[in-house]
Amino acid sequence: MKNFRLLALVLGIGLLLGGVAVDRGLPSLDLPILQWFWPQQPLDLVIAVYESENQPLAEVSVLGGQTANVLRKADKWRQFDKDRLPAAWKPALDAALERTKPPCLCFVRGGKIVAAESLPKSDEALAAAIARRGGIQCQN
Amino acid sequence: MPELIITAANCDRWCGPARARTFDFGGHTRILNANQHPIGSRGLMFATPIEEAIELIPEEQWPDLISQKDRDKSWIDDMAADLKLPCKDQNGLGYCHGYGPVTALEVARAVAGLPYVDLSAESVAGRVTGWSNQGGDPEEDLMVLAKYGACAASFMDRANSISPSRWKAGWEQDALCHRAEEYFKGLDSIDLWVAAGTCALRNIPTSPWYNWWSHCISGSYRLRYDSKTRTIYRKDRNNWGGDWGEDGFCWFARGSGRSGGTPSGLVAVRVATPSES
Predict the structure, then answer these.
(1) Which residues from A are below 8 Å from B when comparing CB atoms?
(2) Chain B residue with minimum CA distance to A124
(3) A52, A54, A64 ranked by CB distance to B79: nearest
(4) How many structural domains is chain B composed of?
Protein backbone atom coordinates (compact mmCIF):
# COMPACT_ATOMS: atom_id res chain seq x y z
CA MET A 1 0.00 0.00 0.00
CA LYS A 2 2.83 2.35 0.94
CA ASN A 3 4.64 1.56 -2.34
CA PHE A 4 1.46 2.15 -4.30
CA ARG A 5 1.03 5.63 -2.76
CA LEU A 6 4.66 6.47 -3.54
CA LEU A 7 4.21 5.31 -7.13
CA ALA A 8 1.01 7.37 -7.43
CA LEU A 9 2.80 10.41 -6.05
CA VAL A 10 5.69 10.04 -8.51
CA LEU A 11 3.28 9.52 -11.42
CA GLY A 12 1.21 12.52 -10.32
CA ILE A 13 4.25 14.81 -10.16
CA GLY A 14 5.41 13.48 -13.53
CA LEU A 15 2.06 14.20 -15.14
CA LEU A 16 1.97 17.67 -13.59
CA LEU A 17 5.45 18.54 -14.87
CA GLY A 18 4.66 17.03 -18.24
CA GLY A 19 1.48 19.10 -18.47
CA VAL A 20 3.36 22.28 -17.65
CA ALA A 21 6.05 21.38 -20.16
CA VAL A 22 3.47 20.76 -22.90
CA ASP A 23 1.71 24.01 -22.05
CA ARG A 24 4.88 26.09 -22.11
CA GLY A 25 6.60 24.27 -24.95
CA LEU A 26 9.78 23.80 -22.98
CA PRO A 27 12.87 22.89 -24.99
CA SER A 28 13.06 19.54 -23.15
CA LEU A 29 10.12 18.48 -25.32
CA ASP A 30 12.47 18.51 -28.27
CA LEU A 31 13.61 15.09 -27.07
CA PRO A 32 12.06 12.55 -29.46
CA ILE A 33 11.04 10.22 -26.65
CA LEU A 34 9.06 12.99 -24.95
CA GLN A 35 7.49 14.07 -28.22
CA TRP A 36 6.37 10.47 -28.71
CA PHE A 37 4.51 10.62 -25.39
CA TRP A 38 3.32 14.21 -25.67
CA PRO A 39 3.12 15.29 -29.34
CA GLN A 40 2.99 19.07 -29.69
CA GLN A 41 0.02 20.83 -31.23
CA PRO A 42 0.69 22.89 -34.37
CA LEU A 43 1.76 26.48 -33.85
CA ASP A 44 -0.61 29.37 -34.56
CA LEU A 45 1.96 32.00 -35.42
CA VAL A 46 5.70 32.57 -35.66
CA ILE A 47 7.04 35.99 -34.65
CA ALA A 48 10.54 36.99 -35.68
CA VAL A 49 12.07 39.81 -33.66
CA TYR A 50 15.07 41.52 -35.17
CA GLU A 51 17.28 44.52 -34.77
CA SER A 52 17.04 46.69 -37.86
CA GLU A 53 20.39 48.41 -37.37
CA ASN A 54 23.35 46.69 -38.96
CA GLN A 55 21.23 43.75 -39.99
CA PRO A 56 23.40 41.16 -41.80
CA LEU A 57 22.34 40.26 -45.33
CA ALA A 58 22.09 36.57 -44.43
CA GLU A 59 19.51 37.44 -41.77
CA VAL A 60 17.54 39.49 -44.32
CA SER A 61 17.48 36.45 -46.60
CA VAL A 62 16.16 34.15 -43.87
CA LEU A 63 13.45 36.65 -42.89
CA GLY A 64 12.52 37.17 -46.54
CA GLY A 65 12.97 33.57 -47.69
CA GLN A 66 10.58 30.93 -48.91
CA THR A 67 9.56 29.52 -45.53
CA ALA A 68 8.74 32.94 -44.15
CA ASN A 69 6.85 33.77 -47.36
CA VAL A 70 4.69 30.64 -47.09
CA LEU A 71 3.80 31.71 -43.56
CA ARG A 72 3.22 35.31 -44.66
CA LYS A 73 0.80 34.09 -47.28
CA ALA A 74 -1.09 32.13 -44.63
CA ASP A 75 -1.05 35.09 -42.21
CA LYS A 76 1.08 33.10 -39.76
CA TRP A 77 4.25 35.19 -39.78
CA ARG A 78 5.04 38.45 -38.07
CA GLN A 79 8.36 40.25 -38.14
CA PHE A 80 8.96 43.09 -35.70
CA ASP A 81 11.80 45.42 -34.94
CA LYS A 82 12.74 44.95 -31.27
CA ASP A 83 12.16 48.64 -30.56
CA ARG A 84 8.75 48.77 -32.24
CA LEU A 85 6.77 45.88 -30.85
CA PRO A 86 2.97 46.02 -31.19
CA ALA A 87 1.13 46.79 -27.95
CA ALA A 88 -0.81 43.54 -28.03
CA TRP A 89 2.35 41.43 -28.04
CA LYS A 90 4.76 43.70 -26.18
CA PRO A 91 4.51 42.23 -22.63
CA ALA A 92 4.84 38.65 -23.87
CA LEU A 93 7.60 39.49 -26.32
CA ASP A 94 9.52 41.53 -23.75
CA ALA A 95 9.44 38.55 -21.40
CA ALA A 96 10.66 36.23 -24.17
CA LEU A 97 13.39 38.67 -25.18
CA GLU A 98 14.76 38.71 -21.65
CA ARG A 99 15.66 35.05 -22.14
CA THR A 100 16.47 35.08 -25.85
CA LYS A 101 18.20 38.04 -27.43
CA PRO A 102 17.17 39.20 -30.92
CA PRO A 103 17.31 38.20 -33.64
CA CYS A 104 15.07 35.41 -32.52
CA LEU A 105 11.91 33.47 -33.23
CA CYS A 106 8.98 33.36 -30.83
CA PHE A 107 6.55 30.49 -31.29
CA VAL A 108 2.87 31.11 -30.54
CA ARG A 109 0.31 28.48 -29.66
CA GLY A 110 -3.10 29.13 -28.13
CA GLY A 111 -2.43 32.87 -28.16
CA LYS A 112 0.65 32.49 -25.95
CA ILE A 113 4.36 32.51 -26.67
CA VAL A 114 5.33 28.94 -25.85
CA ALA A 115 9.00 29.05 -26.80
CA ALA A 116 11.71 31.25 -28.23
CA GLU A 117 15.05 30.55 -29.84
CA SER A 118 17.73 32.36 -31.79
CA LEU A 119 16.94 33.05 -35.44
CA PRO A 120 18.17 30.14 -37.58
CA LYS A 121 20.94 30.87 -40.07
CA SER A 122 19.24 29.47 -43.17
CA ASP A 123 15.82 28.91 -44.69
CA GLU A 124 16.16 25.14 -44.20
CA ALA A 125 17.05 25.63 -40.54
CA LEU A 126 14.05 27.94 -40.13
CA ALA A 127 11.72 25.29 -41.56
CA ALA A 128 13.29 22.66 -39.29
CA ALA A 129 12.94 24.86 -36.20
CA ILE A 130 9.23 25.37 -36.88
CA ALA A 131 8.72 21.64 -37.50
CA ARG A 132 10.51 20.85 -34.22
CA ARG A 133 8.04 23.06 -32.35
CA GLY A 134 5.04 21.22 -33.72
CA GLY A 135 4.85 22.67 -37.23
CA ILE A 136 2.24 25.07 -38.50
CA GLN A 137 -0.73 24.51 -40.77
CA CYS A 138 -0.80 26.75 -43.85
CA GLN A 139 -3.97 26.22 -45.82
CA ASN A 140 -4.04 29.44 -47.83
CA MET B 1 2.82 41.41 -71.03
CA PRO B 2 6.46 40.27 -71.06
CA GLU B 3 8.89 42.10 -68.84
CA LEU B 4 9.45 45.73 -69.65
CA ILE B 5 12.93 47.27 -69.63
CA ILE B 6 12.72 51.03 -69.97
CA THR B 7 15.18 52.17 -72.65
CA ALA B 8 15.70 55.27 -74.76
CA ALA B 9 13.88 53.47 -77.60
CA ASN B 10 10.64 52.76 -75.71
CA CYS B 11 10.70 55.56 -73.16
CA ASP B 12 8.25 57.83 -75.01
CA ARG B 13 5.75 55.03 -75.38
CA TRP B 14 5.75 53.98 -71.72
CA CYS B 15 6.72 57.12 -69.86
CA GLY B 16 5.40 59.88 -72.08
CA PRO B 17 7.20 62.33 -74.35
CA ALA B 18 10.08 64.36 -73.00
CA ARG B 19 9.06 67.51 -71.15
CA ALA B 20 5.39 66.51 -71.25
CA ARG B 21 3.20 67.79 -68.45
CA THR B 22 0.59 65.14 -69.10
CA PHE B 23 0.51 61.77 -70.83
CA ASP B 24 -2.48 59.65 -71.83
CA PHE B 25 -2.17 56.07 -70.69
CA GLY B 26 -4.79 53.47 -69.88
CA GLY B 27 -7.58 55.82 -70.83
CA HIS B 28 -6.55 58.38 -68.24
CA THR B 29 -4.53 61.54 -68.34
CA ARG B 30 -1.39 60.96 -66.30
CA ILE B 31 -0.02 64.09 -64.72
CA LEU B 32 3.75 64.30 -64.60
CA ASN B 33 4.64 66.84 -62.00
CA ALA B 34 6.17 65.09 -59.03
CA ASN B 35 8.68 67.84 -58.64
CA GLN B 36 6.53 70.85 -59.31
CA HIS B 37 7.99 72.07 -56.05
CA PRO B 38 11.79 71.83 -56.32
CA ILE B 39 12.70 68.56 -54.67
CA GLY B 40 15.05 68.76 -51.73
CA SER B 41 15.34 72.53 -51.94
CA ARG B 42 14.10 72.92 -48.41
CA GLY B 43 16.24 70.08 -47.14
CA LEU B 44 13.69 68.53 -44.79
CA MET B 45 15.87 67.36 -41.95
CA PHE B 46 13.55 64.97 -40.15
CA ALA B 47 14.57 61.89 -42.15
CA THR B 48 17.94 60.26 -41.66
CA PRO B 49 20.13 60.30 -44.77
CA ILE B 50 20.21 56.75 -46.05
CA GLU B 51 23.98 56.57 -46.14
CA GLU B 52 24.05 57.26 -42.39
CA ALA B 53 21.43 54.63 -41.60
CA ILE B 54 22.64 51.65 -43.60
CA GLU B 55 25.94 50.54 -45.01
CA LEU B 56 25.75 50.95 -48.78
CA ILE B 57 26.89 47.87 -50.68
CA PRO B 58 29.42 48.58 -53.47
CA GLU B 59 28.07 47.70 -56.90
CA GLU B 60 30.93 45.30 -57.67
CA GLN B 61 29.61 43.01 -54.91
CA TRP B 62 26.11 42.92 -56.35
CA PRO B 63 26.41 40.09 -58.92
CA ASP B 64 27.29 37.48 -56.27
CA LEU B 65 24.65 38.78 -53.87
CA ILE B 66 22.04 38.78 -56.65
CA SER B 67 22.79 35.11 -57.37
CA GLN B 68 22.44 34.27 -53.68
CA LYS B 69 19.11 36.08 -53.35
CA ASP B 70 17.87 34.45 -56.55
CA ARG B 71 18.69 31.05 -55.03
CA ASP B 72 17.01 31.98 -51.74
CA LYS B 73 14.03 33.56 -53.51
CA SER B 74 14.24 36.26 -50.87
CA TRP B 75 13.58 39.42 -52.90
CA ILE B 76 10.70 41.72 -52.01
CA ASP B 77 9.55 40.87 -55.53
CA ASP B 78 9.14 37.19 -54.54
CA MET B 79 7.12 38.29 -51.51
CA ALA B 80 4.96 40.66 -53.57
CA ALA B 81 4.27 37.88 -56.08
CA ASP B 82 3.41 35.35 -53.35
CA LEU B 83 1.10 37.82 -51.65
CA LYS B 84 -0.28 39.14 -54.96
CA LEU B 85 0.17 42.75 -53.84
CA PRO B 86 -1.98 44.78 -56.24
CA CYS B 87 -0.65 47.67 -58.30
CA LYS B 88 -1.95 51.06 -57.24
CA ASP B 89 -3.43 53.51 -59.74
CA GLN B 90 -3.31 57.27 -59.24
CA ASN B 91 -5.73 57.43 -62.15
CA GLY B 92 -5.34 60.98 -63.34
CA LEU B 93 -4.38 62.49 -60.01
CA GLY B 94 -1.07 64.36 -59.76
CA TYR B 95 -0.33 62.55 -56.53
CA CYS B 96 2.57 60.32 -57.56
CA HIS B 97 4.52 61.98 -54.74
CA GLY B 98 2.10 60.29 -52.34
CA TYR B 99 1.53 57.05 -54.22
CA GLY B 100 5.23 56.10 -54.23
CA PRO B 101 5.85 56.48 -50.47
CA VAL B 102 2.47 54.95 -49.53
CA THR B 103 3.20 51.93 -51.73
CA ALA B 104 6.56 51.61 -49.96
CA LEU B 105 4.66 51.59 -46.66
CA GLU B 106 2.30 48.88 -47.95
CA VAL B 107 5.33 46.79 -48.91
CA ALA B 108 6.95 47.40 -45.51
CA ARG B 109 3.75 46.05 -43.93
CA ALA B 110 3.97 42.98 -46.17
CA VAL B 111 7.59 42.42 -45.11
CA ALA B 112 6.42 42.53 -41.48
CA GLY B 113 3.78 39.90 -42.27
CA LEU B 114 0.93 42.29 -41.47
CA PRO B 115 -2.38 41.80 -43.31
CA TYR B 116 -2.73 43.74 -46.56
CA VAL B 117 -4.59 47.03 -46.24
CA ASP B 118 -5.20 49.11 -49.37
CA LEU B 119 -3.92 52.47 -48.12
CA SER B 120 -5.07 55.84 -49.39
CA ALA B 121 -2.24 57.80 -50.98
CA GLU B 122 -4.74 60.64 -51.22
CA SER B 123 -4.88 60.88 -47.41
CA VAL B 124 -1.15 61.65 -47.47
CA ALA B 125 -0.67 63.67 -50.67
CA GLY B 126 -3.84 65.68 -49.96
CA ARG B 127 -2.39 66.98 -46.71
CA VAL B 128 0.76 68.00 -48.62
CA THR B 129 -1.05 69.90 -51.36
CA GLY B 130 -3.95 71.26 -49.33
CA TRP B 131 -6.26 68.81 -51.11
CA SER B 132 -5.66 70.26 -54.56
CA ASN B 133 -4.71 68.04 -57.46
CA GLN B 134 -1.08 68.96 -57.99
CA GLY B 135 2.44 67.68 -57.61
CA GLY B 136 4.66 67.85 -54.57
CA ASP B 137 7.90 66.80 -52.98
CA PRO B 138 7.80 63.09 -51.98
CA GLU B 139 9.88 63.90 -48.95
CA GLU B 140 7.00 66.01 -47.65
CA ASP B 141 4.72 63.03 -48.18
CA LEU B 142 7.14 60.94 -46.15
CA MET B 143 6.92 63.51 -43.37
CA VAL B 144 3.11 63.27 -43.40
CA LEU B 145 3.34 59.48 -43.54
CA ALA B 146 5.58 59.46 -40.48
CA LYS B 147 3.51 61.95 -38.50
CA TYR B 148 -0.11 61.29 -39.51
CA GLY B 149 -0.02 58.04 -41.54
CA ALA B 150 -2.26 56.87 -44.39
CA CYS B 151 -5.84 55.75 -43.78
CA ALA B 152 -7.38 52.67 -45.37
CA ALA B 153 -8.77 53.44 -48.83
CA SER B 154 -12.10 52.05 -47.64
CA PHE B 155 -12.65 55.31 -45.74
CA MET B 156 -12.84 57.28 -48.99
CA ASP B 157 -16.20 57.91 -50.66
CA ARG B 158 -14.75 56.69 -53.96
CA ALA B 159 -11.39 55.73 -55.45
CA ASN B 160 -9.00 58.69 -55.88
CA SER B 161 -11.27 61.05 -53.94
CA ILE B 162 -9.59 64.19 -52.65
CA SER B 163 -12.63 65.47 -50.76
CA PRO B 164 -12.05 64.29 -47.19
CA SER B 165 -15.29 65.98 -46.06
CA ARG B 166 -17.05 63.15 -47.89
CA TRP B 167 -14.95 60.39 -46.35
CA LYS B 168 -16.14 58.20 -43.49
CA ALA B 169 -15.56 59.67 -40.06
CA GLY B 170 -12.52 58.34 -38.26
CA TRP B 171 -10.13 58.31 -41.21
CA GLU B 172 -7.58 60.44 -39.35
CA GLN B 173 -7.54 58.03 -36.40
CA ASP B 174 -7.25 55.08 -38.78
CA ALA B 175 -4.32 56.75 -40.52
CA LEU B 176 -2.37 56.80 -37.25
CA CYS B 177 -2.33 52.98 -37.42
CA HIS B 178 -0.41 53.09 -40.72
CA ARG B 179 2.63 55.26 -40.25
CA ALA B 180 6.23 55.03 -41.35
CA GLU B 181 8.11 54.31 -38.12
CA GLU B 182 11.63 54.01 -39.51
CA TYR B 183 12.48 55.79 -42.73
CA PHE B 184 15.30 57.35 -44.68
CA LYS B 185 15.85 59.79 -47.47
CA GLY B 186 18.36 59.72 -50.26
CA LEU B 187 19.26 62.91 -52.07
CA ASP B 188 21.61 63.28 -54.99
CA SER B 189 24.65 64.06 -52.85
CA ILE B 190 25.28 60.29 -52.96
CA ASP B 191 25.10 57.67 -55.70
CA LEU B 192 21.39 56.89 -55.56
CA TRP B 193 21.73 53.96 -57.96
CA VAL B 194 23.84 52.29 -55.26
CA ALA B 195 21.41 53.37 -52.52
CA ALA B 196 18.37 51.97 -54.34
CA GLY B 197 20.23 48.73 -55.15
CA THR B 198 21.39 48.35 -51.56
CA CYS B 199 17.79 48.72 -50.41
CA ALA B 200 16.77 45.97 -52.85
CA LEU B 201 19.45 43.67 -51.43
CA ARG B 202 18.38 44.53 -47.88
CA ASN B 203 14.61 44.20 -48.56
CA ILE B 204 13.93 47.83 -47.72
CA PRO B 205 11.08 49.19 -49.87
CA THR B 206 11.76 52.53 -51.50
CA SER B 207 10.04 55.23 -53.46
CA PRO B 208 12.38 56.68 -56.08
CA TRP B 209 11.67 59.66 -58.27
CA TYR B 210 13.11 60.67 -61.61
CA ASN B 211 13.46 64.25 -62.73
CA TRP B 212 13.62 63.17 -66.39
CA TRP B 213 10.16 61.63 -65.91
CA SER B 214 8.83 64.19 -63.40
CA HIS B 215 7.42 61.17 -61.67
CA CYS B 216 7.64 59.23 -58.42
CA ILE B 217 7.01 55.46 -58.14
CA SER B 218 7.82 52.59 -55.75
CA GLY B 219 10.99 50.61 -56.08
CA SER B 220 13.82 48.26 -55.14
CA TYR B 221 11.80 45.08 -55.63
CA ARG B 222 14.60 43.09 -57.24
CA LEU B 223 17.96 43.31 -59.03
CA ARG B 224 19.14 41.32 -62.02
CA TYR B 225 22.58 40.90 -63.50
CA ASP B 226 23.06 40.24 -67.21
CA SER B 227 26.50 38.63 -67.33
CA LYS B 228 26.73 38.95 -71.14
CA THR B 229 26.41 42.72 -71.16
CA ARG B 230 27.60 43.14 -67.56
CA THR B 231 24.54 45.23 -66.89
CA ILE B 232 22.56 45.37 -63.67
CA TYR B 233 18.85 46.15 -63.76
CA ARG B 234 16.55 47.15 -60.91
CA LYS B 235 12.84 46.37 -60.78
CA ASP B 236 10.47 49.18 -59.81
CA ARG B 237 6.69 49.52 -59.90
CA ASN B 238 4.68 52.36 -61.38
CA ASN B 239 1.43 53.70 -59.88
CA TRP B 240 -0.54 53.66 -63.11
CA GLY B 241 -2.42 50.40 -62.59
CA GLY B 242 -1.71 46.83 -63.59
CA ASP B 243 -2.12 47.48 -67.32
CA TRP B 244 1.12 49.43 -67.38
CA GLY B 245 4.30 47.37 -67.94
CA GLU B 246 4.23 43.88 -66.43
CA ASP B 247 1.46 44.31 -63.83
CA GLY B 248 2.87 47.75 -63.14
CA PHE B 249 6.50 46.60 -62.93
CA CYS B 250 9.43 47.67 -65.09
CA TRP B 251 13.21 47.42 -65.07
CA PHE B 252 15.79 50.18 -65.19
CA ALA B 253 19.53 50.17 -65.82
CA ARG B 254 21.90 52.72 -64.30
CA GLY B 255 21.75 56.18 -65.86
CA SER B 256 20.71 59.67 -64.92
CA GLY B 257 19.50 60.80 -68.34
CA ARG B 258 16.14 60.08 -69.90
CA SER B 259 15.12 56.41 -69.29
CA GLY B 260 17.94 56.01 -66.75
CA GLY B 261 17.32 54.16 -63.50
CA THR B 262 19.43 56.28 -61.18
CA PRO B 263 16.85 58.08 -59.07
CA SER B 264 16.98 61.84 -58.62
CA GLY B 265 15.94 61.19 -55.05
CA LEU B 266 14.31 58.51 -52.96
CA VAL B 267 12.64 57.80 -49.66
CA ALA B 268 12.73 54.40 -47.96
CA VAL B 269 10.45 52.88 -45.32
CA ARG B 270 12.11 50.16 -43.25
CA VAL B 271 9.54 49.76 -40.46
CA ALA B 272 5.77 50.34 -40.56
CA THR B 273 3.48 50.70 -37.54
CA PRO B 274 2.78 47.08 -36.54
CA SER B 275 -1.02 47.33 -36.62
CA GLU B 276 -3.13 44.36 -37.62
CA SER B 277 -5.77 46.32 -39.52
Answers:
(1) 52, 54-55, 57, 60-66, 68-73, 75, 77-81, 84-86, 88, 123
(2) B72
(3) A64
(4) 1
In a domain, B3, yes or no: no
CATH of the domain at B258: 3.90.70.10
On chain B, the residues whose CB falls within 8 A of the CB of A72 are: 79, 82-83, 110, 113
Indicate whether B2 belongs to any domain: no
Choose among B226, B233, B223: nearest CA to B260. Answer: B233
Q: What is the pLDDT of residues B131-155, one digit of tens each?
A: 999 888 899 999 999 999 999 999 9
Nearest to B65 by CA among B186, B197, B221: B197
Scanning every residue of chain A, which has its alpha carbon at the shortest distance from the alpha carbon of B80? A69
pTM here is 0.89
Q: Looking at the domain A45-132, which fold is it?
A: Glutaredoxin (3.40.30)
pLDDT in tens, B146-205: 999 999 999 999 999 999 999 999 999 999 999 999 999 998 789 999 999 999 999 999
ipTM over 0.85: yes
Residue B6 lies in a domain: no
Complete DSSP assignment for A50-103: E--TT--HHHHHHHTSHHHHHHHHTT-EEEEETTS--TTTHHHHHHHHHHSPSS
Residue B4 lies in a domain: no
Structural domain that includes position B145: 11-272
**For residue B33, pLDDT beyond 80:** no
